[in-house]
Amino acid sequence: MSKAMLIINPASGKGTGERIQADLEMALTASFDEIETRFTQGESDTKYWSREASEKNYEAVVVVGGDGTVNEGISGIAELDTRIKFGFIPLGTANDLGRALGISLNPRKAAKDLTNFKTRKIDIARINNQYFCNVAAIGAIPSAVMETSSEEKSKFGFFAYVRDSMRAVLKNSPYTYKLILDDDKEVEISTKVLVIALTNSVGSFENMVAKASPDDGLLHIMALKDENLLMEIPGLLKELNGGYISEANNMLTYHVKKVVISVMNENAMDVKVNIDGETGPILPVEIEILPSHIEVMVPSEATE
Q: How far apart, in whole angstroms, are the C-alpha atoms of residue 190 and residue 127?
């Protein structure tokens, strides 16, 4: 008898998960004999339950929530030798992995698509002893985003991020980072934002990284040179209307399998990494790609 565990974060999407519970259970019964539904109550519930589902030989785990919930679900099975199928319904602000995989941002449509799914293996990354599936970001802008409250995200959505990011651009000084790329190349970068992405979509912008895909086996590193940063913003906005941000003027890009990042400034204290929208580890960090590590349930008509 095949079993799937359905994990719903009731706080995501203003309670949308609870409203589509019946739709999800009905869709999943097309592929699984038994569906066990759980609602998260505390931090890390999704991570622990996803791991439990794998250890108890469930065939799949499906999580419903924002980018942080998706990260928890993947983190729960990432370190296991045998990893079960992973599905998700994106209910966050950015939903980058959902965008990259062609999963509908309409929750009911995404639920219906689980009636007839296929699987696709995707990369994830290990950062120290944690994992991420979308993006790691460092600097003044990501720090400001980490401080955006849940109430503001719920009320203003993506525009809350834009507002806090612009405040960070105007207020804060850049840090200088040392990057060791693939163990053999060392570079120093002065910037207010350093991004390590796994797909083409970052912060809901689907044209962030040219030629990036969820299974290309690479970390895509981007840093905007700090010189005349405000003068670069019109160019960046232009790129958002058809080009790729990674190809904008004054954008440094690297495509690697591994990177070690540390901060050079003597006055830098506890520079944190934002991973998949949540607070992550403090620099220095080592980030390594884990190619085709997770088998994800995607719509049968989703393009690769």
A: 21
Asked if the structure places residue 146 within a domain, the reply is: yes
Which one-letter amino acid corresponds to residue 255? Answer: H
Full residue range of the structural domain in which residue 256 is found? 132-291
Query: Do the domain assignments include residue 255?
Result: yes
Q: Domain containing 258 — which CATH number? A: 2.60.200.40
* Strand, helix or coil for residue 17: helix
Pairing status of strand 3-8 against strand 60-65: parallel
Say how far apart CA 214 and CA 233 lie, in whole Å: 27
Residue type, 105: L
Instruction: Give CA–CA dist 170/168, Å, rounded.
Output: 5
Other C-beta atoms closer than 10 Å to the C-beta of 269 total 8
Domain count, the chain: 2
> pLDDT tens digits, residue range 120-172?
999 999 999 999 999 998 986 655 554 555 555 455 444 444 455 555 555 56
Q: pTM score, two decimals? A: 0.86
